[in-house]
């Protein structure tokens, strides 16, 4: 086993690999036929505009509950009853999820992979949000050695079992893994399990990916 293959880059999906729905309001409004500026909630980009997001950050509701509420709200705006996040994502982002993948994510994943690092996704909602056929429509996922998705395991971050599951699947100890997530409580959970961590600032994706690669002895070129 090489030095690189004894390390792993473990990424959250939503917000880290893909752009957040907050960043693509213009595209969402256009796709749904809504007037520009209809969607005013902006989560981490303007917390004062989004008290529901602030409540989630305080632990008063889960991330899934947050997005279920937003899905119902947007569904009502188009005169429909949306009961799941999957409907929202598909209607807002169309049939090609690759269009909302962060270019910084693609670069970092390829750099880490070429260096021989193992790659993993640890997500609370990958198939839940995008649908069961999503993985076939996103070639980028073929680069990953391991995908742990709470849609199927039922174990949500920051439950310690989620982090231990991805380490077990990678066959690496926690201290060999650099975990990247945009939710601080998920970062706290990873730290408690012994993983190295980078809190992903969705407002500064290049800086966050550079930090993660630096921890692996690599650079975001």
- Average predicted local confidence, pLDDT: 92
| Element-by-element helix/strand order | EHHHHHEHEHHEHEH
Task: Give the % helix.
Answer: 40-55%
Question: How many strands in all?
Answer: 5
Rg, Cα atoms, Å: 17 Å
**Main structural class:** alpha/beta
Number of helices: 10
Polypeptide structure, described:
By secondary structure, the chain is an alpha/beta fold. It contains 10 helices and 5 strands; from the N terminus they run βαααααβαβααβαβα. The chain has helices spanning 25-32, 51-57, 63-77, 85-93, 103-114, 126-130, 150-153, 160-170, 184-192, 205-215; strands at 8-11, 118-123, 146-149, 177-181, 196-199. The chain has a 5-stranded parallel sheet, with helices on both faces. β4, α9 and β5 (196-199) form a beta-alpha-beta unit. The protein starts with 7 loop residues before the first strand and ends in a 6-residue tail after the last helix. The mean pLDDT is 92.
Q: Secondary structure elements and their pairing?
A:
Blueprint: E1 8-11, H1 25-32, H2 51-57, H3 63-77, H4 85-93, H5 103-114, E2 118-123, H6 126-130, E3 146-149, H7 150-153, H8 160-170, E4 177-181, H9 184-192, E5 196-199, H10 205-215
Parallel strand pairs: 1-2, 1-4, 2-3, 4-5
